[in-house]
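Propose amino acids for all 576 sites.
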C-alpha cells in the first residue's frame, strides 16, 4: 500500500464513474484468492447455524496465524472494525463494480492501517473501534497485502473469513455458487436421513409431529433410496425434513448445501437455493431448518415446508407450502435433490402412498394458543410472558410450568414453553421478585437453567418488585443475584523485570453476569489492552506502547467491572 495515494484515488474515482451504478456486478474472474496458498475451506456460504446462516467462506490457514491476506480486487478500504467478538479484527474493501469484500478474524492490518486504528483506540480510550475511511485514505490494488490472517473475535481456530457483498445493500452473496472463486469439489452431497412430519390442527394451531425418521442407502454416487424400499405410508398432510452432509475434496469439515428441490410425480413442489440474503433476514434460518433436529447434528437439516413467518428470499418454488397431500391411495414418486455450490448433486427417490390418518394429538393441559401475527401476554403464577406479533415463525400452543426454587435463586424456576421451539424476535419475561433487600436489587438478573442444572446469565434488571428482561429463546428461567466481583490475575509478579518481554497480560473472568468493561492505567495513563474473550485474556503489546524500556519502575492499575457493577482491582509495579 506504500504508493502515490492521489494517483490511485483518482483512478478509483474514474473507475466508479465508468462503472456507473451497480448493485450486483460481481463477475467470475474479477476477484483473486485472498491468500497465496491453495484454498481449502473449513466452512462455506449458507451453512445453517443457530440464529444465522454463515455469510461467507472460511479459508484454512494451515493451522497457523500470520498468513498474508491480499486484496481480492482493486478498490479502497472503506471500513475497519476491531471488537472482542464477531469478526474480531476485520477489513472491508469497496470495489468499483458495486461490491465490497470482507476479511475477518485477522491478526493485524497493514502498517498504515494498524497505526490509524491504534491512534483511534488511544483517542477513544477503547479497544473496540470502528473506522470508515474515505476512498483517498487507503486505496488498494488487487493483490496488495492488506493484513495477516489470525484467530480474533468469535473464531474457533486460525482461518480467514471472506465475503463478497453487494455494496448498496450489504447483502452477502454465495461466492462459490456464483463462480466468483473456485475450490476443488467433485463430491456430491451425502443424504443422511429422512424425517417424515405430520401436520395436525389443535385449537386452530398447527402441530408438527415427527412420525418417522428413516435411514437411507446410497446405491451409486449421487443416488439414494430408503433402507426400507416398500412404499412409505403417509398421512393426509405430510412434509419431509432431510439431513444432508456436504463435503469438499481434501477436507472433512461439514459444509452447507446450496440447493434443495423436491418433486412429487415429476412436479416441483418445493425448492430453495441460497444465493444470498440480507443480514436482517439471516435469523429466519431457524425456520428454514428442521430446528430441533438441526441442533443435534453438524450437518444441515432442511425443513421442506415454508412456515408462515419466514421472510427468507431463498425459496424459488413452494406449492401448498410444501405439504404433500395424496388425493388417493395410489403410489406417488418423491424425489429430493440436494445440490452443492459446485454443481454436484444427489437424489433420494422413494414412493409414498396414503395411509390411515393418525390419531390427532391432544393439546397439553393448560396450553394457550398464541397466534404468530398477534401480540399475546400470558401469566402463570409470578411469571408474565409478553410475545409481540412476528416473534414466532408460526402459531403455537404455549405451555409453562412452575418448578421448585433453587438454593441460589430468588424465585421458582419457570419453564417458559419448549427450548427447541425457535424464535425470530424477542419477548419480554417478567418474574415476581418478592422481598429482595435493597442492597441486592441492582445485582439481580434473570438466569437460564440448562439441562445440567447450571444457571447462566440471561440479562434483565429489577424494576418495581419484578425482574424483567428481553429474551430470544424459550427455556427454564429464574432470578439470581451476582454479588461476586470478577477475577483478575496478572501474568507477572508485581515488581518483575519485563524489559525482555514483548507483552503484558491479565486473565480476567466473571462467574455469572459477564465482563462489562475493563481499564488499565500504566503510570497513571490509559494503556491499550486487547481483549480475547475466548481465552479470557487482556494483553498489552510493548512494541506499540508509550512505555519505553529505560529500566525504570512503572505502576500498573487494572479495573474490571461485571454486568451488574461488581468491580475487581489490581495494583502493582513492573520494571522496564
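Proposal:
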Amino acid at each position: 500500500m506504500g504508493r502515490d495515494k492521489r494517483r490511485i484515488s483518482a483512478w478509483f474515482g474514474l473507475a466508479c464513474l465508468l462503472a456507473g451504478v451497480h448493485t450486483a456486478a460481481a463477475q467470475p474472474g474479477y476477484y483473486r484468492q485472498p491468500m497465496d496458498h491453495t484454498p481449502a475451506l473449513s466452512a462455506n456460504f449458507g451453512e445453517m447455524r443457530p440464529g444465522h446462516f454463515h455469510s461467507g467462506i472460511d479459508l484454512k490457514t494451515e493451522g497457523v496465524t500470520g498468513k498474508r491476506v491480499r486484496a481480492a480486487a482493486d478498490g479502497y478500504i472503506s471500513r475497519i472494525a476491531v471488537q472482542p467478538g464477531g469478526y474480531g479484527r476485520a477489513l472491508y474493501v469497496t470495489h468499483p463494480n458495486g461490491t465490497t469484500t470482507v476479511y475477518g478474524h485477522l491478526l493485524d492490518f497493514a502498517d498504515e492501517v494498524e497505526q490509524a486504528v491504534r491512534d483511534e483506540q488511544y483517542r477513544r480510550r477503547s479497544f473496540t473501534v470502528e473506522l470508515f475511511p474515505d476512498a483517498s485514505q487507503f486505496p488498494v490494488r488487487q493483490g496488495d497485502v492488506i493484513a495477516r490472517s489470525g484467530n480474533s473475535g468469535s473464531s474457533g481456530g486460525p482461518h480467514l473469513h471472506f465475503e463478497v457483498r453487494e455494496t448498496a445493500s450489504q447483502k452477502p452473496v454465495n461466492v462459490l455458487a456464483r463462480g466468483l472463486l473456485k475450490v476443488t469439489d467433485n463430491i456430491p452431497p451425502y443424504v443422511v436421513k429422512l424425517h417424515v412430519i405430520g401436520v395436525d390442527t389443535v385449537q386452530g394451531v398447527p402441530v408438527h409431529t415427527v412420525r418417522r425418521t428413516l435411514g437411507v442407502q446410497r446405491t451409486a454416487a449421487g443416488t439414494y433410496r430408503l433402507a426400507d424400499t416398500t412404499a412409505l405410508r403417509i398421512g393426509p398432510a405430510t412434509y419431509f425434513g432431510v439431513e444432508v452432509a456436504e463435503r469438499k475434496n481434501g477436507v472433512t469439515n461439514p459444509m452447507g448445501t446450496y440447493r434443495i428441490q423436491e418433486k412429487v410425480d415429476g412436479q416441483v413442489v418445493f425448492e430453495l437455493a441460497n444465493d444470498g440474503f440480507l443480514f436482517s433476514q439471516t435469523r429466519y434460518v431457524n425456520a428454514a431448518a428442521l430446528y430441533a433436529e438441526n441442533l443435534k447434528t453438524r450437518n444441515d437439516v432442511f425443513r421442506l415446508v415454508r412456515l408462515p413467518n419466514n421472510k427468507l428470499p431463498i425459496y424459488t418454488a413452494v406449492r401448498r407450502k410444501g405439504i404433500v397431500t395424496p388425493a388417493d391411495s395410489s403410489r406417488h414418486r418423491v424425489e429430493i435433490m440436494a445440490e452443492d455450490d459446485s454443481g454436484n448433486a444427489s437424489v433420494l427417490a422413494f414412493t409414498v402412498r396414503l395411509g390411515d390418518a393418525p390419531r390427532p394429538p391432544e393439546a397439553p393441559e393448560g396450553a394457550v394458543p398464541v397466534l404468530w401475527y398477534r401480540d399475546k401476554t400470558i401469566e402463570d403464577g409470578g411469571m408474565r410472558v409478553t410475545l409481540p406479533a412476528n416473534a414466532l415463525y408460526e402459531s403455537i400452543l404455549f405451555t409453562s410450568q412452575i418448578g421448585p426454587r433453587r438454593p441460589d435463586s430468588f424465585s421458582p424456576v419457570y419453564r417458559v414453553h419448549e427450548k427447541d421451539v425457535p424464535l425470530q424476535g424477542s419477548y419480554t419475561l417478567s418474574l415476581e421478585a418478592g422481598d429482595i433487600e435493597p442492597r441486592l436489587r441492582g445485582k439481580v438478573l434473570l438466569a437460564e437453567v440448562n439441562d445440567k442444572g447450571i444457571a447462566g446469565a440471561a440479562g434483565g434488571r429489577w424494576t418495581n418488585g419484578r425482574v424483567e428482561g428481553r429474551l430470544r429463546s424459550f427455556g427454564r428461567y429464574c432470578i439470581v443475584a451476582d454479588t461476586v466481583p470478577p477475577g483478575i490475575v496478572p501474568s507477572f509478579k508485581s515488581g518483575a523485570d519485563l524489559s525482555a518481554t514483548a507483552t503484558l497480560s491479565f486473565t480476567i473472568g466473571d462467574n455469572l453476569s459477564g465482563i462489562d468493561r475493563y481499564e488499565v492505567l500504566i503510570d497513571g495513563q490509559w494503556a491499550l489492552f486487547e481483549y480475547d474473550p475466548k481465552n479470557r485474556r487482556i494483553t498489552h503489546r510493548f512494541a506499540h506502547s508509550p512505555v519505553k524500556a529505560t529500566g525504570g519502575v512503572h505502576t500498573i492499575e487494572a479495573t474490571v467491572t461485571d454486568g451488574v457493577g461488581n468491580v475487581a482491582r489490581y495494583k502493582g509495579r513492573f520494571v522496564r
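The first strand starts at residue 41 and ends at 43. The domain at 190-354 is CATH 2.70.50 (Coagulation Factor XIII; Chain A, domain 1).
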